[in-house]
Amino acid sequence: MKNLLGGKGANLAEMNLIGVPVPPGFTITTEVCTIFNEKGQKAVTDLILNDVQKSVAHIEKLTGTQFGSKENPCLVSVRSGARASMPGMMDTILNLGINDDAVEGIAKKTNNPRFAWDSYRRFVQMYGDVVLGLKPHSKEDIDPFEEIIEQIKEERGIKQDTEFTVADLQSLVTKFKDAVLQKTGKKFPTDPWEQLWGAIFAVFDSWMNERAIIYRKLNNIPAEWGTAVNVQAMVFGNMGNNSATGVAFTRDASTGENIFNGEYLINAQGEDVVAGIRTPQEITLEGSRRWAKLQGVSEETRAAKYPSLEETMPEAYAQLMEIQHKLENHNRDMQDLEFTIQNGKLWLLQTRNGKRTGAAMVKMAVDMLNENFIDEKTALLRIEPNKLDELLHPVFDPEALHSATVIAKGLPASPGAATGQIVFFADEANKFERSVLVRIETSPEDLEGMVLAQGILTARGGMTSHAAVVARGMGKCCVSGAGSLRIDYKARTVETSGKVFSEGDWISLNGSTGEVFEGKVKTKEASIDKDFAKIMELSDKYTRMYVRTNADTPKDARIARNFGAKGIGLCRTEHMFFEGERIKAMREMILASDSEGRKKALKKLLPYQRNDFEGILEAMAGFGVTIRLLDPPLHEFVPHQQATQKELAEEMGISLEQIKIKVAELEEFNPMLGHRGCRLGISYPEITEMQSRAIIEAALNLKAKGIDARPEIMVPLVGTVAELKHQKDIILATAEKVFAERGTRIDFLVGTMIEVPRAALTAEGIAKEADFFSFGTNDLTQMTMGFSRDDAGKFLPTYLEQGILKQDPFQVLDQHGVGLLIDLAVTKGRSTKPNLKVGICGEHGGEPSSVEFCNRVGLDYVSCSPFRVPIARLAAAQANLKKN
Ligand code: ADP
Ligand code: MG
Ligand code: MG
User: Fold this and answer.
1) What is the maximum alpha-carbon separation in the chain?
2) What does the alpha-carbon distance between residue 277 and residue 291 come to, in Å, rounded to a whole number?
3) Closest CA to 252 of 386, 94, 414
4) Residue 822 belongs to what H/E stretch?
């Protein structure tokens, strides 16, 4: 149902079915949007004209009103609703059907001219912005309607929208319409049907607007899905002081606690709560008190000026409580609700599974499991693997917090710690490496900048403001509604606590407490809590694959092991040649003119390598550690600048000229396809010999200490079985020599990386010489696609923009092409050796959709960077659950 009706439409229909009060309406399906995009307006009108007329008649019947009537007009909202919820992405129009006649009718019927004219001016404004395109396109421009509003407020010396008189509102409508005529050259449409069709097509159009496209890209939503259009009878939260509108969550979207919460505004309509225009009030008394405390508002002032809905409208509140339980029960998940109270009567306008932070996601899933609300599999499948990332990130160091100066306080809108330099405009978020976006309020236009910024700080708006909702969805730290901030966009300054901060100044945000600090505040590693541990335990219960890590140091190996890694899938050895004295010996080896000279230099490197391997094997004791032999081309190890070359020449007692000649010799036209990988070990067998010796000796040293070391030696960049055989012979011979010297043995494996397409194509032969395969999908992708990762930046963005590639193949495994090679190699390899151990060690090993692929083709494990281990564990379990 969701695919056709969109999320909003489907949920409205569902609420209606289970007896929740919803204003009558109808939904135009997403299929119509697709037809609109392909064939245009005329085709759509021909197709649905009849149905739309009939459906409007149905609304008229249920509400006892008439569309276009003077005395008893029917007003509707036109709302977009895609399959996946896209908050704030698409534009909604309220009060449609109103015009100069209808406004009088409504005024008379309700005996409330103020309300009638307020609705009218809102409609002209929204319709003008959304359908007629008067919304400003650049940040310097202001909305022409807002300008008029400000002008009248100034003339009349008032501050709030609620202070407008009927005469003010009437003059607003006239001025708004004049502005429309002036800007578009056309009169504002007075015919309700013309308004309705204009709005329907505007919704379809907005599917292709820039911010919707950005959101889809960020969330991998295909453009083909389209949006539905919901047309629904209006209910009014702005009919006076017995009316209100609000937003609520059945649980805390920020922490996950099982506490009903939300915000509302009396005598307001639609988006007023979310837009951060007026400071909304809390729904529950408990929430209201908590809010007051955070804001430093006394209980007396709170009760008088910012009372909760529980206090102001106890009956509607009780009913809302009942409905929120019902909806959470029905949907078996935390709900994000929109409601309106019209003259004391409660109506629900939307429900959906609420967005939440990573922490809340984990807590809610485990809580609901404990409440027997959902089962283990559902709990697991409900966690978005990538969002676990937020829980693994640093928090502020409590010590550092002690001495940090608080310069402002707002609402803890989205948890986490952020430190960065101030920027005031979203499109300037990339001005600094780490920026914090500081705004009076944010809007959907700011999306891209919010992605780039470390954190978001707003002066206005509550927990359900745009900034808060979007930040939580992104897992980005956000403090909203920090009322003490005086932001001056022109001067690019913000004043608070008697200090002025300018663009580029450092500040820090604590999204979990709402505090804003001056300068940089030190952060510390996050720790894993018990709900998180429960999810990991369930992951292990339901997974088939296990997870290793890519780690080059004992420290990384330990971090990964704490996150549940069972072994190392890739230990690169090249960095071990750079530190301190080592690089000298390495360069000496490279500059040597014969094998004897190289051996002498390698002897100096041996103890360093052995030591490193001992550390890593010890950190991963009991689990396999795949160590890759030297891989990068040698020119990466020699100096390329005159000054360093000179230094080296002096150190080595040779001429600068000699060094220059050697460096020139090592230069390659295409190093990616050059003298690297096993080709090095074949040209210089003594390198392979030294590395094998270091690995075996390290393992034996550990064995002597009673530590269970399990080395797996991996030969890189193999394309033919003869290459592997060549290297394997050296490794085995060296091992035997060391065993003889020490008089003791140890088990170890020899295998290869599959990263050259030829190796995949001939895997049945390669498997004869290999104990294991590890797919190096970075190189395999480069070589299969035929473009280098280092140069792809020049054209990949264009490819992605134009849809030539759907995703960056270096981030998300290209399952159709590269994946085919993997699948083939696994099958061929196992046809030779049924028990061949197979894993993946490219960047893709921690990317959920790629992990799912690995599970499907039967890999034994995936390997990824330490901080992605929990993500991969969960993704592996989910892949297995989805497969079965
Ligand atoms: P969004 O997807 O941006 O939340 P919505 O379609 O939900 O957009 O509408 C925006 C606002 O207008 C919401 O606050 C919603 O509750 C309100 N609204 C929509 N339709 C109606 C209606 N028929 N009567 C009263 N308010 C409505
Ligand atoms: Mg909504
Ligand atoms: Mg490689």
Assistant:
1) 104
2) 18
3) 414
4) helix 818-832
Distance 636 CA to ligand 3 centre (A): 15
Cβ of 227 closer than 6 Å to ligand 1, yes or no, is: no
Which two tokens mark 606? 């041996």
Q: Cα-flanking dihedrals φ and ψ of residue 841, to 5°?
A: -130, 10
Cα 579 to the chain's mean position, in Å? 36
pLDDT in tens, 645-676: 898 888 888 899 999 999 999 999 988 899 99
Mean pLDDT, rounded, of the chain: 92
The answer to whether residues 639 and 646 touch, using CB atoms and an 8 Å cutoff, is: no
Please give the distance, rounded to the nearest whole angstrom, from the Cα atom of residue 530 to the centre of ligand 3: 38
Q: What is the per-residue pLDDT across 703-734, written as a single tens digit (0 to 9) for each?
A: 999 999 999 999 999 999 999 999 999 999 99
**C-alpha span between 179 and 169 (Å, rounded):** 15
Which atom in ligand 1 lies closest to the alpha carbon of residue 273?
A: 14
**Distance of alpha carbon 382 from alpha carbon 378, whole angstroms:** 6
* DSSP secondary structure letter of residue 88: T
Both tokens of 499, joined, read 């200090």
Q: pLDDT of 93-133, one tens digit each?
A: 999 999 999 999 999 988 899 999 999 999 999 999 889 98
pLDDT category at 276 given cuts 50, 70, 90 is low
Q: Whose CA is nearest to atom 1 of ligand 1?
A: 88
Q: Which two tokens stand for residue 672?
A: 């990616």
Count Cβ atoms below 10 Å from residue 513 Cβ, excluding itself. Answer: 17
Q: Give the closest residue (by CA) to ligand 1 atom 20.
A: 77
In this structure, the strands spanning 710-715 and 749-754 are parallel
Based on the residue annotation, tell me whether 678 is a catalytic residue of this protein. Answer: no
How do 227-233 and 486-488 pair as beta strands?
Answer: unpaired
Residue among 222, 136, 127, 140 at smallest CA distance from 176: 127
What's the residue count for the chain?
A: 884
Active site residue 841: yes
* Residue 528, pLDDT above cutoff 80: no
Q: With CA atoms as reference, report the closest residue to 83 among 33, 121, 25, 119.
A: 33
Rounded to the nearest angstrom, the gap between the alpha carbon of residue 503 and the centroid of all alpha carbons in its chain is 26
Q: Is the pLDDT of residue 642 over 90?
A: no
**How far is residue 318's CA from residue 388's CA, in Å, rounded to a whole number?**
36
What is the C-alpha separation between 564 and 547, in angstroms, rounded? Answer: 8
User: Which pLDDT value is given to residue 867?
Assistant: 82
For the CA of 85, the closest atom of ligand 1 is 2
Find the helix packing angle between 30-39 and 2-17, rounded to 10°. 150
Helix, coil or strand: residue 537 = helix
Q: C-alpha distances in angstroms, 253 versus 247, 326, 536, 618, 737?
A: 12, 18, 21, 42, 62
Query: How does strand 624-628 pair with strand 568-571?
Result: parallel
Helix (H) or strand (E) holding 261: strand 261-266
pLDDT of 88 strictly over 60: no
The response to whether residue 206 sits with its C-beta less than 6 Å from ligand 1 reads no
Q: Under a CB-based contact definition with an 8 Å cutoff, are residues 4 and 31 in contact?
A: yes
Confidence of residue 90 (pLDDT cuts 50, 70, 90): low
Give the tokens for residue 864. Answer: 């990824």
Phi, psi (deg, nearest 5) at residue 267: 55, 55
d(CA 281, CA 289): 11
Q: Is 28 in the pocket of ligand 1 (CB under 6 A)?
A: no
Strands (E), 654-801: 710-715, 749-754, 772-775
CA of 80, closest atom in ligand 1 = 6
Q: How confident is the model at residue 304 (pLDDT cuts 50, 70, 90)?
A: very high
Edge to edge, the sheet with strand 76-82 lists 25-28, 227-233, 76-82, 93-96
Decide if pLDDT at 411 tops 60: yes
* Residue whose C-alpha is closest to residue 730's, from 688, 684, 677: 688
Q: Are strands 772-775 and 749-754 parallel, antiparallel or unpaired?
A: parallel
Query: 94 CB less than 6 Å from ligand 1?
Result: yes
